[in-house]
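# step 3/5: fold
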Amino acid sequence: MTTAANVGVRLESLLGADRVTGAAEDLQDFAIAGLLPSAVVRPASAEEVTQVVQFALKENLSLIPCGSRSKLEIGAPPSRYDVAVDTTSLQSIAHYDAGDLTLAVDAGLPLRRLTEILAEKNQFLPLAVPCFESCTVAGVVASGIDSSLRLQYGTARDFLIGAEFVDGAGKLCKSGGRVVKNVTGYDLHKLLVGSLGTLGIITRLNFRTFPLPESSRGHLASFASVEDALSYYKIVNATGLPLANVELLSPEVASIIAAILKRTDLSLSRFAESDKWYVYVAFEGHESVLRRIAEELEKHAREGRAQTHELLEQTADETLGGMLREAYEWLRWSAPQVALVRIVVPTALANDLAEFARIAQTNSLQHALLVRAEGVLYLALMASNSDEAALAALRNAVRDIFLAAREKKGHAKLLHAPVTVTAFAAEPPPHGLALSVEKRVRQAFDPHNIFAPGRIVGAA
């Protein structure tokens, strides 16, 4: 087996000294839960990625693919971490047919840059995800992070039509194709969504693109109680209107947004009252459609006992929409120590939200709650200091949140937490058929367990 000291030297002989680094300061940038790789390698093509994987197989090394590293902490701490594979040098657009609404793009292309390229053809990918300014296309897919446009457009899984990746046998594999209607074979590329790099190293992704909406609007309503806010939230979701996003904000979330905007010389005076619950609705389309939707929302807000309700002017709407897109980013830094949990429940009820709040309060923690469309909740558990008592409270609260989510026929995922909390309070592994299927999929893609071992709960 190759020793840690000469991993970098061997990789340099494979790809060249300019593609490999073992400098301490560089390795620190790729740390996961306090673990550092022995080297960072930056392949510039799919063929070079294949060479790196084959090298790792011969030397019994573990690999973790990385992009901009904005979401590298999602998942359990790795059990082994020898080499970080930085894919940000893979930035080509291999295929783009604007008329056919199809795109093939390399893994490391920044999402911001891709957005600019598509906008030139009046198109876009509906990936309104956190860390938008820095994240890579493959990072969005591998992390499985939510898009704030999922209500109208679905998740990446819905418009990912193909992929190219290197599997655990060191082979360059392809799934799907470049056309929207692809009827041959299995959609194996869908398994890459949320895989955290455990199934292979993504080198290229194929998407269906969408026309840019003609215009967009936002509507904001405030309520005195969570019951009134949740009732309006459900009514709006049940209208059948073509809405891009619907989000319910707890008073604590509104306060955090207001504080951030105040520091940047921007403000939303609607958040001045810290005891209010808010529901934000975004919608897109032709002006005539927007007017009809706005009228409907105003009507439902009045009937739903909203204390305030208004159609936001463009600047305020863009500001608030951007803030909500980035919720993962600012929620995880909203206190000295934060555990950020994503919870999915079949139906979000007022007593569900109350129970999650009770768990936080029982452990003497502050909390902030954001309810997104389709039963997706973000719960930030916030400790005011970093002593052992605070960390123990976070561990206990996260454990109880996982249990509560399971009792409600849902599930929870820890997105961010101090290292000791992440290691101690990870989600219990699945059992029975679910665990069996997970292991079989992993074995098929990565028979030698070299990709991000331990990152997915239940994996080795």
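# step 4/5: annotate
The first strand starts at residue 20 and ends at 21.
# step 5/5: archive (pending)
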